[in-house]
Every structure is written in structure tokens, then in C-alpha cells.
Amino acid sequence: MYQKILVALENSHADETLLPHITELAKRFQSQLLLVHVADGWVARNFNRLELRESEEMKTDRAYLETTAEQLRTSGLTVTAHLALGDPPTEILKTAERENCDLIAMTAHGHRLLGDIFFGSTIHQVRHKSFIPILLVRAGTKAP
């Protein structure tokens, strides 16, 4: 059913909630996982245009993706990782479409109106623009 699942990681504790759900799902369907994190700091957003050096944020995010991918591989899963740069919703959607993903998995934080205004809502933009099914796991929820 799901051959390739894009897993949008935040490099935060919320990922600890999402990964057990996705690991179980990938094992059941023998899915490939594509771990994606979008670095969105100033350097990341201007990296290619200004030909900048990789920032510490980007180096840390890349190391996190590779470490997480390796941990999932040791459990028998097929995993690739991609560090995208720029606007998170845009990059998640572009990557999911380019890589022919069947599912996008993300965490939800339960912000309300003011939280969404101040923190933005990647989920809001992704769910309104995606033609790919989306699995949302509320941060802090335990896997079955």
C-alpha cells in the first residue's frame, strides 16, 4: 500500500513520537522511508543563491538525519535521508512529489490560533496543498 513514506523530521523530541509509528507501519507494508528535515535558517534559505558555506545548523541537521537513518536501518528498514533547505512546507511537498512518495508522515503540536500565528503551521500548508495522503501523529503520543 505505501511503498515510499516521506518522514518529515524536526530534529526535536517530537520525532521520538513519530518514529515508532512509522517504523511499525514501514515494517508491515515493507515500505521505504525517506527521512526529510528542512533547514530553514538564514544561511539555509540563501545557501545556493549566495553560494554560502554550510552553517552549523545545517551540519547538525545532516548529522541528525544520518544518525536516525542508520538507527532505522539496523532494525531492517530501507532508509534514505535528505536535508532540504528553505521553506519547510514547500520543500516537504516538492520532495514528496519528486520522490514519488505515497504518504507524508509528520507530527502535530496542537497549537491553537495564536500558536499558529507565532510559530507558523507547516502542517496547515502541507495538508491544504498535498495530493498525497498525510499521517499526523500528535507529539507526545505513544505508539501502540
Please, could you describe this protein's structure?
This protein has 144 residues and is of the alpha/beta class. Helix content is 49%, strand content 22%. The chain has six helices and five strands, in the order E-H-E-H-H-E-H-E-H-H-E. Helix 4 (88-98) packs parallel to helix 6 (122-129). The longest helix has 19 residues, at 56-74. The protein is globular. The chain starts with a strand and ends in a 6-residue tail after the last strand.
Assigned CATH architecture = 3-Layer(aba) Sandwich
Structural class: alpha/beta
Using only CA atoms, what is the Rg? Answer: 15 Å
Order of H and E elements: EHEHHEHEHHE
In the CATH hierarchy, the third-tier topology is known as Rossmann fold
Helix content: 40-55%
| Most strands sheet | 5 strands, parallel
- Low-pLDDT sequence parts: 113-119
Any idea what the CATH superfamily is called? HUPs
Q: Tell me the strand order in the biggest sheet.
A: 3-2-1-4-5
CATH class: Alpha Beta
Q: What percentage of the residues does DSSP assign to strands (E)?
A: 15-25%
Overall tally of domains: 1
User: How many DSSP E strands?
Assistant: 5
Global morphology: globular
Topology of this protein?
Blueprint: E1 4-8, H1 14-29, E2 32-39, H2 42-50, H3 56-74, E3 78-85, H4 88-98, E4 103-108, H5 113-119, H6 122-129, E5 134-138
Parallel strand pairs: 1-2, 1-4, 2-3, 4-5
Helix pairs in contact: 4-6
Please outline what is shown here:
The protein has 144 residues and is an alpha/beta fold.
Keywords:
single chain, 144 residues, alpha/beta, Rossmann fold, 5 strands, globular
